[in-house]
Amino acid sequence: MRSLAIERERVWTSEVGSHVGERVTLAGWLHRFRPLSNVAFLILRDAKGLAQVVVEEQALRAQLDGLYNESVLRVTGTVVAVPQVPDGVEIHDPSVEILSAAAAPPPFDLFRPVLQPPLATLLDHQPLMLRHPRQRALFQLSAAAMAGFRATLSSLDFVEIQTPKIVGSATEGGANVFKIDYLGRPAYLSQSPQLYKQLMVGVFERVFEVGPAFRAEPHDTPRHLNEFVSLDAELGFIHDHRDVMAVLTHTLRGMLDALRTDAAGALALLGLADKLPVVLAAPAEIPVVTFTDALALIARGTGEDLAGEPDLAPAHERWLGEWARREHGSDFLFVTGYPAATKPFYTHPDPANPAFTNAFDLLFRGVELVSGGQRLHRYEDYCRVLAERHMNEDAFTDFLEAFRHGMPPHGGFAIGLERFIARLVEAPNVRETTLFPRDLHRLTP
Amino acid sequence: MRSLAIERERVWTSEVGSHVGERVTLAGWLHRFRPLSNVAFLILRDAKGLAQVVVEEQALRAQLDGLYNESVLRVTGTVVAVPQVPDGVEIHDPSVEILSAAAAPPPFDLFRPVLQPPLATLLDHQPLMLRHPRQRALFQLSAAAMAGFRATLSSLDFVEIQTPKIVGSATEGGANVFKIDYLGRPAYLSQSPQLYKQLMVGVFERVFEVGPAFRAEPHDTPRHLNEFVSLDAELGFIHDHRDVMAVLTHTLRGMLDALRTDAAGALALLGLADKLPVVLAAPAEIPVVTFTDALALIARGTGEDLAGEPDLAPAHERWLGEWARREHGSDFLFVTGYPAATKPFYTHPDPANPAFTNAFDLLFRGVELVSGGQRLHRYEDYCRVLAERHMNEDAFTDFLEAFRHGMPPHGGFAIGLERFIARLVEAPNVRETTLFPRDLHRLTP
């Protein structure tokens, strides 16, 4: 039932095929106008796609010829089946209402199949550039991925939370935190919902959040941004990090399922319909290597001396991504057992070898996509690690209160949304899959 | 199918009734321990509710008696039907594993039906206080409301977006903006996604966003916070603000439906199952009064002289809320036609009377819950109003680019999530329905 006027009064370009022989009203943007000798074609773009409108009337032709592309039109016409055109239908005998004439021609051709300008130019004109069907398709994927994340976790009894982004102290410690003037007091932008989502395990046991995270890192790399969308989950009553990895695997499957169902058109447009990554299902799960074994594998494969390395460099992650693809047929690879020294204070040690941890990363096509793991859950353990790391316990008073009063073994993970989509479409730069990127140089649009 | 270990290994307290005669494993918090002369009762709380465990064994009784409330336990026992207890079932013959002993007694009794301390004390201990079944129920309502918002708009072809919260200039103008040190440059926290969601109408026609909004107002009122969750929507190809009001009405119905289906337990616990507001359906829609008529009504009703008032005071909104309830049987009331002078620059004037606007507020039980309206969509109109208001056009260059290149008539609305839940449960202070409030005095927890 279409109960609202906005639904009743127009059909989407994607629906035109089911209205052959009818007179329909479309609305959208003048994507392109192509005057030929005795006929002209108006390509109308709406949120769903394109429609070809055949213009024969001379007065209308002259009127449209005087409009800049991107003018906004309402078009009423008859749907005619035309087997030889790409969509199989055209709009004939149109009447056109100009809702809003563009004031200037676009700075680049939005009707080309692929946009030509370099990334920096496109980003400068992002409000327009996003109108290009391929560009906006990327953000249809983002929307579907978020919906799949939420739907999968909701079906596992996770509860959605919204935690504050203005915080009284740096969540994860460290210097990479944006400072705010908070009504005359210092405050900070949240680096992650980490501590809040842990507190909320005490309330709902299983929680998730989709929201912005902020890192004041003066990076200038193709994979870092100063603001990104973090898909966070945290759950209690686990045995160890492997329960978290199982939930993450299940969630990734749900996100990819949502892409297939909710964003089929966007996937097809981007040529990705049959190129989605495989999340291996039981009995062949996503492969897992320990950090120690990963270093040994890379050293053997590359001849590098990696003894004592505290972390994986991007080149090492790429090597591991190729190895996982080659040896396991997997786009994903879990790396577990990172050294304790490189991980935040709340990380749970590996009980069998406390110099290492129950933290993991998930590499997706050779790039770190997810970090996660088991967290400490005992009050006395937190008191100990804060002292060992010479961290100021006062900054964590509220956080510690939850642990003083009983917290179950728990863990969680965080997926970077923009990075997920970037790897999915194999975009070399995460800015290509970020709606309005924030980086060292870019605060606008 | 329960494919994950976290699902297979325990049953929720809410599921115990369907396992009579079986031995089940529960997990949760020691909500209360009540030793009587020959028997003791352990009330176990998990994310779903409470279960009563009967302890007869002396050694176990002594062990539990030595634990503080809020210790974390795993309990395995036999489900026995006991018609005379509230749930109709008990857990007998338990074995108990202490997963995490609390280090101290809670600062207030979490097992009381209603928490006793004043709001400020509760907020100081929010990580614990939220564990109380009534407190956490409020945030189950929030989660359901967000899910209903998204589901309703998704079904109307709205696309979810995530816009940046760090912005290069103040979105709505005005002084109430938090300033950030952005890698050595000044930047600001987004007051709303207003301008971004308008740009995105050019891309997806219909968009929504659920995210934080920030206002640096040194308010100290029961209905203002410095950070809140904004449920934003914006849509193109409207006739005027009435199309936006129709979509908002439809969305509110969807949110209330989601509360009934997703949060039935929380509603029952809060005594609200049959007290949800009515969103009047056609033919009796939500009543609408113009600002001018509203002032006249209030003046007539109260004897106040309101000639020339530029806006409604909170007391006036309360009066109108009672009037709508009394005269129209409605918990909601639209007020339209606000004076142009009090509304932001992007507000579309009323074509019949340009001193007034196509902006509206929606009052919910006498409090402004939603603001929305039709926006300007023509480039030349923006240039004119920015000049008239002596605003710096350079700060809006990116925003204006979208309008230079064709934007349809559009409008939208923003619902304050915390305020919606506060009015729904009739909480006198919006802090009661905010997970971790941020105000003049409170930056933690």
UniProtKB/TrEMBL annotation, chains A, B:
Primary location recorded for the protein, binned into one broad class: cytoplasm
Region (Aspartate): 194-197
Localization in the cell: Cytoplasm
Pfam families reported for this sequence: tRNA-synt_2, tRNA_anti-codon
Reactions mediated catalytically: tRNA(Asx) + L-aspartate + ATP = L-aspartyl-tRNA(Asx) + AMP + diphosphate
Alphabetical list of InterPro entries matching this protein: Aa-tRNA-synt_II, aa-tRNA-synth_II, aa-tRNA-synth_II/BPL/LPL, Asp-tRNA_synthase_2, Asp/Asn-tRNA-synth_IIb, NA-bd_OB-fold, NA-bd_OB_tRNA
One GO location term (cellular component): aminoacyl-tRNA synthetase multienzyme complex
Domain Aminoacyl-transfer RNA synthetases class-II family profile per the UniProt entry, residue ranges: 149-445
UniProt keyword annotations, A-Z: Aminoacyl-tRNA synthetase, ATP-binding, Cytoplasm, Ligase, Nucleotide-binding, Protein biosynthesis
Cited HAMAP family: Asp_tRNA_synth_type2
Role of this protein: Aspartyl-tRNA synthetase with relaxed tRNA specificity since it is able to aspartylate not only its cognate tRNA(Asp) but also tRNA(Asn). Reaction proceeds in two steps: L-aspartate is first activated by ATP to form Asp-AMP and then transferred to the acceptor end of tRNA(Asp/Asn).
Subunit structure: Homodimer.
Designated name of the protein: Aspartate--tRNA(Asp/Asn) ligase
Species this protein is from: uncultured Chloroflexota bacterium
Lineage per the UniProt record: Bacteria, Bacillati, Chloroflexota, environmental samples
